[in-house]
Write a structure and sequence with these properties.
- It is a single chain.
- This protein is an alpha+beta fold and 394 residues long.
- It has 13 helices and seven strands.
- Helix 5 crosses helix 7 and helix 8 runs antiparallel to helix 9.
- The longest helix has 32 residues.
Length: 394
């Protein structure tokens, strides 16, 4: 269960039919890829990592959904995989809306055909769930595909002014204290306060500049190099453990690929910080490294209250905060998750969220293992944000 969006680690919880579906996953997608390339001309020359995209997540989510009593009603329940897929198709391919619809329809009949060929008998409820999941995915993907080219750009000047004021004020106070002190140890302490606050401001401004660059229609300037993502994640875990205690679990083996080390690090740190801020206190935060279909999957899972479905898209838009953040007076100016999306999309991938009662919240960065061929791909999402309230299907 490497790509189910809730990162279920125990396939033994699934029904026999669901487990059989998982055993046939490679056969399903091999046949689907052949049919898709033959039927949809826009898919003919797509590299495999871009072609496959988030479909394995949908497939494994469906396996969960057909399992009685599993806390997922359809493959799209509580996650944004289909919406992110539609956005990626708009950014990375020459697809049109009909192409998006066709690939889901082809998946539907491929699933049924392969299961039938392997003597897997589906009952009426299972057929209904599969159809409902694919129909919902079509709606979400096409909606995102369309909105990616039509939404208005976010404003941010007020948020910038507000959130830079605190570290600036702290630095100013420390500077004033230095002016009135003759104690060298105190002066060193105040100077350290100034340095810390200026570094905080510099980090905030750097995140802002990267997001502004991306939202102005330009890609991040990536410095791609080959490195082991496990080393980066291990360092992040050690860093957060030193500050917040042993709440962090790292799962996954070594995985080398071509990415921007600093950008990926900052993106993962932002998601982990988000889990600390909004997750249930004193519960584990799980960071997992997976690789499938030549794509790297980094997931961060936390327990706690789920993200309301109507906010699952707006949290990725610059300066839009979830209701919990505003009402709970959470600190921050809302560029952390938009920055994560910026990094993922600049690497030719996406970031998805899966959140629901009984499942907790899982963010997934899903990018090609080798980002070099995709770093110059156009980014419609870079120019436009999706307006709130228009990112869900009825």
């Amino acid at each position: 269960m490497a790509t189910a969006t809730d990162q279920n680690l125990d396939s033994g919880k699934l029904s026999p039919t669901a487990r059989k579906m998982l055993e046939l996953q490679n056969e399903v997608f091999s046949e689907w890829g052949k049919r898709l390339r033959q039927s949809v001309k826009e898919a003919e020359r797509l590299p495999h990592p871009i072609l496959i995209n988030t479909f394995p997540s949908l497939y494994q989510n469906i396996a969960e959904a057909i399992t009685p009593h599993y806390p997922r009603t359809t493959g799209d329940d509580g996650n944004t995989a289909a919406a992110e897929h539609g956005g990626e198709r708009a950014r990375l391919t020459n697809y049109n809306a009909n192409s998006v619809i066709s690939e889901y329809q082809i998946l539907r009949w491929t699933v049924f055909d392969v299961l039938k060929l392997n003597d897997v008998q589906l009952n009426d409820d299972e057929v209904f769930v599969i159809n409902a999941s694919i129909d919902d995915s079509i709606c979400q993907a096409v909606n995102a595909f369309t909105l990616a080219q039509a939404a208005l750009r976010e404003g941010f000047v007020a948020a910038l002014t507000h959130d830079l004021r605190n570290p600036l004020s702290n630095a100013l106070i420390a500077a004033q204290l230095i002016q009135g002190s003759i104690d060298l140890e105190k002066i060193k302490e105040f100077a350290g306060m100034i340095t810390d606050n200026l570094r905080r401001m510099d980090g905030m401004i750097q995140d802002l500049l990267d997001s502004v660059t991306f939202h102005a229609g330009e890609r991040l300037h990536l410095r791609l190099e080959e490195f082991d993502i496990q080393e980066v994640v291990q360092n992040i875990v050690e860093q957060f453990t030193a500050t917040h205690g042993p709440r962090f679990q790292l799962i996954g083996n070594t995985l080398a690929g071509w990415w921007d080390r600093e950008a990926i690090r900052r993106a993962i740190e932002n998601i982990v910080s988000n889990a600390l801020k909004y997750g249930a206190h004193d519960t584990p935060i799980r960071i997992k490294i997976d690789s499938e279909n030549e794509r790297m999957l980094i997931t961060v899972h936390n327990e706690g209250e789920p993200i309301p479905p109507e906010l699952s898209e707006s949290i990725f838009q610059v300066f839009r905060r979830a209701v919990a953040a505003r009402e709970g007076n959470k600190k921050g100016w809302g560029i952390g998750l938009p920055y994560v999306r910026t990094v993922a999309e600049s690497h030719g991938g996406s970031v998805t969220v899966d959140s629901g009662v009984g499942r907790g919240t899982t963010f997934m960065i899903d990018i090609p293992v080798d980002a070099r061929p995709f770093q110059d791909a156009p980014t419609l999402e870079g120019k436009f944000d999706r307006p709130p309230g228009q990112d869900s299907c009825p």
